[in-house]
Amino acid sequence: MFWVIHILLGMVIGLEFHSAWLIIPIALLSHFILDYIPHWDGFFDKELFQETGFAKITKRDFMVKLIDFSFMILITLYFYSMYIEGGMIVNKNYLILGAFMALLPDLVKIGYFTRLKKRKTFKKYLHFHSRIQRDINWKKGLIIQAILLIILLLYLNRLI
Fold first, then answer.
1. Which residues, in sequence order, are CB contacts of 155 under 8 Å at separation 6+?
2. DSSP string for 87-103
3. Bigger pLDDT: 93 or 58?
4. How many domains does the chain contain in total?
5. Is the pTM above the cut of 0.90?
6. Using CA atoms, how far apart are residues 65 and 50, in angstroms rounded to an integer?
7. Residue 102, Cβ density class (10 Å: 0-12 exposed, 13-18 middle, ≥19 buried)
8. Are residues 65 and 42 in contact, defined by beta-carbon separation less than 8 angstroms?
9. Distance, CA of 103 to CA of 99 (rounded, Å)
10. Sign of the CA dihedral running 111, 115, 117, 120
11. Phi/psi at 135 (nearest 5 deg)?
12. What is the CB neighbour count within 10 angstroms for residue 131?
């Protein structure tokens, strides 16, 4: 699932639950639930990774992730600033905590580019995270993510 979807749902969780003790586990769980929904996640060769344990990042995959990352930053800044200017009483820390915790399972994967990739526990996590992904063709996958994006954006915008 694209990062922007994860952080938007994390923001919703951060706005709706008023306790870090609730936000942290719910936002983390939301990540895996979203990844279980069939989607298209770019050009990453999941089968190669599951067979060999090695990831090959192509230029196309890097560009998809770069666009997703850029969009995620812009959306985060937009809602962070809108909730300040909109006059709504919002705990911005909860907003950011929800977004961060919803994205954390993907951020942990950055460890693949370090010595962590040789650790058994880390490899098990990567394989688990890879196995729960429900990939489908890119057109259907993008449609599903676009629907989720619209729903989450509408929900967050109605709160401003």
1. 12
2. -----HHHHHHHHHHHH
3. 93
4. 1
5. no
6. 20
7. buried
8. yes
9. 6
10. negative
11. -80, 145
12. 11
pLDDT band of residue 135 (cuts 50, 70, 90) is confident
Tokens 């192509």, located at residue:
58
Measured at the CA of 64, the angle between CA 150 and CA 154, to 5 degrees, comes to 10
Alpha-carbon distance of 90 to 43, in angstroms, equals 37
| Whole-angstrom Cα Rg for the chain | 16
Give per-residue burial for 136-154: e unless 16+ CB within 10 Å, then b: eeeeebeebbeebbeebee
Q: Name beta bridge partners: 39.
A: 135
- Closest by Cα among 29, 33, 30 to 9: 30
Q: Domain residues for 70?
A: 3-158
The set of residues, in sequence order, having a beta carbon less than 8 Å from that of 2 and lying 6+ positions away, is: 39, 41, 68, 71, 72, 145, 149
- Here the tokens at position 137 are 């063709």
* DSSP secondary structure code for residue 21 in this structure: H
**Distance (Å, rounded) from C-alpha 157 to C-alpha 42?**
27
pLDDT at 84 exceeding the cut of 90: no
Tokens 């401003």 belong to 160
